[in-house]
Amino acid sequence: MGYLANRPFGAVTVPIVGGDHEGIMKAGFFFFISISFFFAILDVTPSVQGAKVMHILLLEDDETLGPLIEYKLKKAYHEVDWSTHVETAQSFISVGHYDLYILDWMLPDGTGTELCSALRKQGDSTPVLMLTARDAVEDRVKGLQLGADDYLVKPFAMEELLARIEELGRR
Predict the structure, then answer these.
(1) How confident is the model at residue 136 (pLDDT cuts 50, 70, 90)?
(2) How many degrees, rounded to 5, is the angle at CA 53 between CA 52 and CA 54?
(3) pLDDT exceeds 70 at position 33
């Protein structure tokens, strides 16, 4: 009787055949742990379906949504710095390099559109995705005119956010 145990990272599969399933399962688990350890030691992250691993600045003041987005992005193998305030985001930007900014519009100490506009005036061409509850056509147009590359309205599907991030990473 043959069995197949699928392991993460897509290409790693451990066939389990024969009578001693437990021993082979342990060997498969050890193999999986070894591969995981190998990636951790080399600080190499396997790509997800060929997607580019990106360093993302997330500016979102919602204490429930922010950590959820951060978790989902990290699960998709992106590096994420999350901020709830424009001032903190500006500090992150001044000391780090980002592949993408995800900016909420309305924040406690300013707006994501003001930050986007300031970044563009400084010559920063990093892609910007506005992620906001402001859904009026005028708001979407204004966000894009102020320098955003994409605009996604809350509530949104996480799959759509990930697809938009992937597309912005191809630019």
Answers:
(1) very high
(2) 105
(3) no
Spatial separation of the C-alpha atoms in residues 60 and 64, rounded to whole Å: 10
Q: What is the mean pLDDT of residues 12-32?
A: 44
Could you tell me which of 100, 154, 116 has the C-alpha nearest to residue 132? 154
54 neighbors 81 (Cβ within 8 angstroms): no
Instruction: Retrieve residue 60's tokens.
Output: 């979102």
If you count them, how many residues does the chain have?
171
| Candidate from 20-24, 93-97, 117-121, 136-140 with smallest mean pLDDT | 20-24
CB 54 within 8 A of CB 102: no
Write the CB contacts of 13 (distance below 8 Å, at least 6 apart in sequence). Answer: 4, 5, 6, 7
Task: For residues 93 and 61, give the distance between their C-alpha atoms in angstroms, rounded to a whole number.
Answer: 17
Spatial CB neighbours of 124, under 8 Å, sequence gap ≥ 6: 93
Provide the pLDDT for residue 4: 38
Token pair listed for 26: 């342990």
| Least confident among 25-29, 35-39, 109-113 | 35-39
Lookup: tokens for 138: 């005028």
What end-to-end distance do the CA atoms of the chain give, in Å? 49
Q: Beta partners for 17?
A: 2
